[in-house]
Amino acid sequence: MNAFDQQKYIKLQSEKILERVSKFKKLYLEFGGKLFDDHHISRCLPGFDPDTKIKMLLNIKEKVEVIITIAAEDIESGKRRHDVGISYEDYTIQLIESFKDVGLLVNSVVINKFDSQPSVITYKRKLEQRSIKVHLFNKIMGYPTNVDLVLSDRGFGVNPFIQTTKPIVLITSPGAKSGKMGVGLSQLYHEAKNGNKKAGFAKFETVPVWNLPLRHPLNIAYEASTVNINDVNVIDHYHFEKYGVVAVNYNRDIEAFPLLQNIFRHIYGKDIYHSPTDMGVNMVGFCINDNAAVEAACKQEIIRRYFETLCYFKQGKVGEDTVSRMVLLMKQLSLNPTDRGVVVHTAKLQEKESKHSASIQLSTGEILSATANGFTSASSELLLKAVGKLLSLNSKIRIIPDNIMQKTTELKTQILGEKRFHLRLGEILVILASSAVTNELSAHALDAIKQLKGAEVHTSYMISDEESMVWKRLGVNLTQEPVLG
């Protein structure tokens, strides 16, 4: 039995959303986090497929259409998603294609906080060339504190009203702080102005989980995943005061609630929600079968996030305050980096050989280690060693013959002029794929690589972005020491 009941979640979550829709004629549903490929949640909740939330939405897809919002400042700055290695601009286009592939209707894209930036105008044209409707929402001075201004022709009234046809309008984005809530509230303002005061608003967040303890490892893992934007879990005191029930939410929603409540009162003439938790529809906490297994998985995820944060600091992507917050989260659960088995094995090999080292823990629990060796990087050598183990090969058998390694290395160094001769992970995969047609061993090796999904890898140094992305695409959970290679 899985620690998390995915089928129960799909049923309960879709029912909860439909229940909320029944209270309104139209529901603007702000979605936080990732809809597609949510590997963070799947690592924390064994049994939760990375596309579970999409599967849930497909249950009710006839009632759903999607608005994607992206902040103009993120277009202008070229902001990137570190997990997939692409810009917010490209990720937005990828989202549109992904929604289309599964049959979910994309209404349009909103470019938020528009201030006549030339790069934004160029991006708008790029989307329109793809036959994507684009709406420009201007930056509103005084938002969200000056409610009288915000709810006027000089505030939300400046924004265009987006015509929608489905009862559920899902508002999502390529990343945090893209203005999803502002888009939803703008739509509510226009709906009310047009005489429809039965349009509603709700939040679809997966974490933090409101009905788990504040310091539950799943909720702390959420803080670890957002440590760079300083999201902090807190008790929803509004919910406790109203209902006498302890509920967990996060700081930004708690801080924004008085303003939201004021906006709702202006639109509806009454309170429709009494707490930030009231606005949510999250059913994750009701679908956990094995709490101990979930806690263990979340602790491992927090350790992985710890190493990620240290590497980001080394690269100048985050500051010391972010590292300090991450260290504090580790201490709250009494976690140590060495609680991750591959870390210990890698450190021992690095100390023994004084070479770049790496270790992998297979699904069987067995841990293998390797160093940079001859023609291969530590990552490449580890991959070949792991595949050899999966195929039960004699350790003396080389999956890729040395003469092929040598010729490929000569191409890199003598013809392409590369200074680093070690064959990287992606290059090893290309060699295997190109030889699989005529070499039976290479074909078996490619099949065996699929078994690495879910494996744990740690390296004694920061590997290249290219190698890091290959590991991730193989479904391997990678951590690295914050040491420049």
Description:
By secondary structure, the chain is of the alpha/beta class. Helices cover 46% and strands 14% of the residues. It has helices at 6-21, 39-44, 52-58, 72-77, 88-102, 118-129, 147-150, 180-193, 217-225, 237-243, 251-268, 276-279, 291-314, 320-332, 341-353, 378-390, 402-415, 425-435, 440-449, 465-473; strands spanning 26-31, 64-71, 80-81, 86-87, 105-114, 134-138, 168-172, 199-204, 233-235, 248-250, 357-361, 367-371, 456-459, 477-480. Strand 13 (456-459), helix 20 and strand 14 (477-480) form a beta-alpha-beta unit. Helix 1 crosses helix 3 (52-58), helix 13 runs antiparallel to helix 14 (320-332) and helix 18 packs across helix 19. The longest helix is centred in the middle third of the chain and has 24 residues, at 291-314. The model has no long low-confidence stretch (mean pLDDT 94).
Q: Find the count of extended strands (DSSP E, 2+ residues).
A: 14
Query: How helical, in percent, are the residues?
Result: 40-55%
Profile the largest sheet.
6 strands, parallel
Strand content: 5-15%
User: If strands are numbered along the chain, what order do they take across the biggest sheet?
Assistant: 6-5-2-7-1-8
Termini Cα gap: 42 Å
Overall morphology: globular
Would you identify the regions where 5 or more consecutive residues have pLDDT less than 50?
A: none
What would you report as the Rg, rounded to the nearest angstrom?
A: 25 Å
SSE class:
alpha/beta
Mean pLDDT: 94
Supply the number of helical segments: 20
